[in-house]
Amino acid sequence: NNCVYIYNSEGQFLFQFGGEGSGEGQLKSPKGICTDRAGNIIVADSGNSRVEMFDKTGRFLRHITTDIEWPCAVAMATEGQLVVTDDWDHTVSILNIQHVPNLT
Known about the structure:
Blueprint: E1 3-7, E2 13-18, E3 30-35, E4 41-45, E5 50-54, E6 60-65, E7 71-76, E8 81-86, E9 91-96
Antiparallel strand pairs: 1-2, 3-4, 4-5, 5-6, 7-8, 8-9
């Protein structure tokens, strides 16, 4: 169903976000997930060939990159860079991303 499910530390379901599609906040075959230091959620949206950033409540913030063919795994490096693997061309990209402040 192309969603991300969020649970608390006791395993209790809290909320979900995403849903199938190619619009902002929608996902198609999400494969990898991580969080940054601010608690933003970063998702490798493989079917849409992009990496997305959501805030800690699941609200879409931005496309981090749209030029990776099949992003599969994402991880934050110790100095704040985002590491993304691409299953299409078997590469690893290291991206310098800027924190997006929470908008109210």
